[in-house]
């Protein structure tokens, strides 16, 4: 099967972007919609070149930078009052960071540095941009799964993983319940369901291994 040449991809993406720009200008000048297909078209030659040259680090750097520029431009054009693009910039930067680190990205130190830095980043955004509600607890809950899962995967302690993960989920629901609706104690319902995870792991995996 014939492979596409990088030059063809560059020419095709440029021609397509120019076509969308002209159509956008002729039909609807009040809204710059051509930037959306242009983003995908720019990724075509970049991805093809990096794949043929096996430059995965360069691909992650160029693509993450292009996506960040796209989000910032969208933010400035449509809603310059609220800097919502800041919410996505820092997590996107971790894509090239992890690719550059290579095998070191699978270490516990990187997992802890990454998760703590992301939590602090969103905590600062929460305080400075939207202090009305402590929404930073949601990305913090998601990011903490990174070092937790990696630690137990390396140690192969799956029953302990179910216990620690259940405690994390329980703490999360209790915190959300206390913050969002303290007058209604609804956290007991998901907590009851979560408790079945370590309980089933104990009786069907851990205890069975001890008997054998």
From TrEMBL:
Superkingdom field: Bacteria
Q: Does this entry carry the keyword Disulfide bond? A: no
Query: What is the protein named?
Result: Uncharacterized protein
Q: Where are the transmembrane segments?
A: 7-27, 33-51, 58-78, 84-102, 109-129, 135-151, 158-179, 185-206
Q: Which UniProt keywords apply?
A: Membrane, Transmembrane, Transmembrane helix
**Upper classification of the organism:** Bacteria, Bacillati, Bacillota, Bacilli, Bacillales
Q: Does the keyword Lipid biosynthesis apply?
A: no
């Amino acid at each position: 099967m014939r492979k596409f040449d990088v030059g063809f991809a560059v020419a095709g993406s440029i021609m397509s972007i120019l076509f969308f720009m002209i159509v956008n200008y002729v039909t609807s000048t009040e809204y710059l919609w051509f930037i959306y297909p242009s983003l995908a078209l720019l990724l075509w030659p970049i991805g093809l070149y990096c794949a043929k040259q096996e430059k995965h680090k360069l691909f992650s750097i160029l693509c993450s930078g292009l996506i960040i520029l796209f989000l910032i431009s969208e933010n400035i054009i449509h809603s310059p009052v609220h800097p919502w693009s800041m919410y996505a910039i820092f997590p996107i930067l971790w894509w090239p960071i992890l690719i550059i680190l290579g095998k070191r990205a699978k270490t516990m130190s990187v997992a802890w540095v990454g998760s703590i830095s992301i939590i602090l980043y969103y905590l600062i955004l929460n305080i400075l941009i939207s202090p009305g509600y402590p929404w930073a607890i949601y990305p913090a809950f998601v990011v903490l799964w990174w070092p937790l899962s990696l630690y137990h995967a390396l140690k192969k302690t799956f029953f302990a993983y179910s216990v620690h993960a259940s405690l994390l989920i329980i703490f999360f629901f209790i915190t959300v319940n206390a913050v969002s609706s303290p007058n209604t104690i609804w956290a007991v319902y998901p907590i009851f369901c979560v408790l079945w995870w370590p309980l089933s792991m104990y009786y069907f995996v851990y205890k069975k291994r001890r008997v054998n």
